Amino acid sequence: MRTPLSALQIQLDNLRHDDRDGRFAQGLSELEAGIGRSTSLVNKLLRLAHYDAREPAPSPRPVDLAQLAVDTIARLTPLAGSRSIDLGITRRDEAVTIGALADFEIILDNLVENAVRYTPSGGTVDVAVEVTGEEARIEIRDTGPGIAEDDMTRVFERFFRANPHDSEGSGLGLAIAKAAAERQGARVALSMRQDRPGLIACLVVRLVPMKASR
Questions:
Q1: Residue 105 CA: distances (Å) to CA of 61, 69, 146, 148, 154
Q2: Per-residue pLDDT for 14 more than 80?
Q3: Which is nearest to 99 in space by CA: 7, 189, 182, 190?
Q4: How far apart (Å, rounded) are the C-alpha atoms in residues 44 and 59?
Q5: What is the pTM for the complete model shown?
Q6: Which residue, 53, 79, 88, 111, is the most exposed by fewest CB within 10 angstroms?
Q7: What is the Cβ-side half-sphere exposure of residue 152, based on CA atoms within 13 angstroms?
Q8: What are the CA-CA distances from residue 85 to residues 77, 101, 175, 202 (Å)?
Q9: Which of 139, 175, 170, 181 is nearest to 155 (CA)?
Q10: What pLDDT sits at residue 167?
């Protein structure tokens, strides 16, 4: 499915190049956005298929969780900026685990992107890396509307959207994050904020002794 979508994107680029007077600019932009959403959906479905097939994870190696959080924020800062969301890191405890970096990137990308997309303009998304005992918690706190209590048990189901009127979401992001976490022996959980409206998404990872990580 990715190949036909790539071909459509090439044809669209050619059309945009030939549209010298800009008559079709709006239509081409809408078409490009549709192709982008379809490509994203296909990629997510393929990723879930890989997890369902229980394919072996990439070779494990030390993963610096604080650096992972910083890199994730850097990747998603343009999206946050386009939505006037203040995205940043509030705590960076030293934390190293052993696993597949690609899986941890997928988990955190999905959790942070979800928080950014569901937080209204002018809101904040704070990421914190905190070590407690033999575990590290990466928490993502947003100032969005949160999730209804009745929906909380269903948020990790595929294609489930707590806000069905959101045209951007596919309902796969949290399912992918959960599947990736399970493959890495980690946990993903959601809870409502107690200090104000908003949601807390949390990735809990087992640490390795610092000597073993070097």
A1: 14, 9, 23, 27, 23
A2: no
A3: 182
A4: 22
A5: 0.74
A6: 53
A7: 14
A8: 9, 26, 24, 19
A9: 175
A10: 46
Per-residue pLDDT tens over the stretch 167-192 = 465 678 888 899 999 999 999 999 99
Give the angle subtended at the CA of 75 by the CAs of 170 and 44, to the nearest 5°. Answer: 25
Q: How far apart are the two ends of the chain, measured CA to CA in Å?
A: 42
Measured CA to CA in angstroms, residue 22 lies from 19, 27, 32, 195 at distances of 5, 10, 15, 50
Rounded-to-integer distance, Cα 169 and Cα 1, Å: 19
108 and 203 Cβ atoms separated by less than 8 Å? yes
171 conformational bin, left if phi > 0, alpha if psi -120 to 50, beta if neither = left
How many whole angstroms separate alpha carbon 182 and alpha carbon 178? 6
Question: Which string of b and e fits 39-58 if b means at least 16 CB within 10 Å?
Answer: beeeebeebbeebeeeeebe
Are 97 and 209 contacting, i.e. CB atoms less than 8 angstroms apart?
no
Residues 71-115 pLDDT 10s: 999 999 999 999 999 999 999 999 999 999 999 999 999 999 999
**Sheet strands side by side (includes 135-142):** 86-92, 124-132, 135-142, 199-206, 187-192
Q: Which residues contact 19 (CB under 8 A, 6 or more apart)?
A: 25, 28
Tokens of 33: 């956005």
- 214 has a pLDDT exceeding 60: no
